[in-house]
Amino acid sequence: MKKLKFYAIGFVPGLLLVFFILNKKGASCSGYLPNSRVIAETLSKEFKYSEDFKNGMNTYKINEKFVKDSIITKGKVDFDRSNAQKQPCPDYLISYPEKNPSYEITFEKCEETVTLNSLKKIR
Question: Of 25, 39, 47, 66, which is most buried, counting CB atoms within 10 Å of its CB?
Answer without folding.
Answer: 39
